[in-house]
Design brief:
The protein is an alpha/beta fold. It folds into 2 domains: 4-219, 3-Layer(aba) Sandwich (Rossmann fold); 227-310, 2-Layer Sandwich (Alpha-Beta Plaits), CATH 3.30.70.2190. Helices cover 36% and strands 30% of the residues. The strands form 3 sheets. It has a 6-stranded mixed sheet, with helices on both faces. The protein has a 4-stranded antiparallel sheet with strand order 2-1-4-5. It is globular. The two termini are 40 Å apart.
């Protein structure tokens, strides 16, 4: 089965309330796509339609090219999802909880032990495998929940706001786990209302509001298309403090429109142009040998683009 998730004229209404309106979206390949929107935008509704937890009013939800509602077993055979935040029986250990999931998912009995070990290892919970879940923090419980998604070794993973309700440490741990999942040739579709989370974790972003898709593209292209002045804003991190002479040199590079300090080791650089301009800037910065250790679209730039898109509905 190919790695793809597709909505075709997908609509869900409850009486006169339209939770999702004529969604057309096709996601393919091994990457992480953020599904970004405010609370109540239609994100969870979409994921529930893709897993056949609810039925569409109109249109089709396809996973691997197969209609989920008409052939759920085949469509979801290579897919796993974590919708909202399920609770684990507190008296169970991770091994016991995951054994139940493995049996429900049809994992052969002779493979269950290794699958459970591998899944717990991937979410860094192996050392707690025989401890009762009731004693775990929210972040630890969520890591076990993510392990339950991995039991069947899916090639497509859907996550519904996986860091909701966690403290900063728990959020950071879960984000690092999602990043690690990307390295295993999987298609990950992750809903979120947190701009910094999407910027940090995802390769592309689909933006939704009031049940309607606003845009789907790479983060840098979204910023370029919907920013007020057609600029790309990049946050560049350095291994050491950046002095004024280096900032001045960066300001002279092609396509650079301006620079500003975030702190002693981080710089915000505004450039004009598309993804090629961003690529060129990274190459020039690396050639300068000034200790560049990170390079990513600015969260504030994504926020500005997003607010520009939804300002008419605020």
């Amino acid at each position: 089965m190919r790695q793809s998730i597709e909505a075709v004229n997908l609509t869900k209404s409850y009486g006169s309330f339209i939770a999702l309106s004529d969604l057309n979206l096709k996601l393919e390949g091994a990457k992480c796509i953020g599904f970004l929107g405010p609370n109540g935008a239609g994100k969870t509704t979409t994921l529930k339609l893709f897993t056949d937890m609810i039925r569409p009013s109109e249109g089709h939800a396809l996973v691997g090219g197969i209609d989920v509602h008409s052939n759920k077993k085949e469509a979801l055979s290579s897919c796993a999802a974590l919708i909202e935040t399920p609770e684990i029986y507190p008296s169970l250990t991770p091994v016991e909880a995951l054994s139940m999931i493995a049996e429900i998912r049809g994992v052969p009995s002779e493979e269950r032990g290794k699958r459970i070990e591998d899944s717990l290892s991937e979410v860094k919970m192996l050392e707690w495998k025989d401890k009762k879940v009731g004693r775990f923090s929210k972040g630890m419980k969520q890591r076990v929940n993510i392990a339950s998604v991995l039991i069947s070794d899916p090639s497509i993973i859907m996550l519904d706001e996986p860091t909701t309700g966690l403290d900063p440490r728990g959020m950071s741990e879960v984000r690092e786990i999602v990043k690690s999942l990307k390295r295993r040739n999987r298609l990950i579709f992750m809903s979120s209302h947190l701009l910094n989370e999407v910027t940090d974790v995802c390769d592309e972003v689909a933006m939704i509001d009031h049940g309607k898709l606003l845009a789907y593209d790479t983060i840098s292209n979204i910023i370029l298309k919907f920013s007020e002045n057609g600029s790309n804003i990049i946050e560049v991190g350095f291994s050491r403090a950046v002095d004024d002479s280096i900032i001045a040199e960066i300001g002279k590079l092609g396509n650079v429109k301006g620079t500003s300090k975030i702190d002693e080791t981080n710089l915000r650089v505004e450039i004009s142009g598309d993804i090629k301009a961003r690529e060129g800037l990274l190459y020039e910065l690396a050639s300068m040998k000034i200790g560049v250790i990170s390079f990513k679209p600015s969260t504030s730039a994504l926020e500005s683009s997003y607010l520009n898109m939804i300002k008419e509905t605020l």
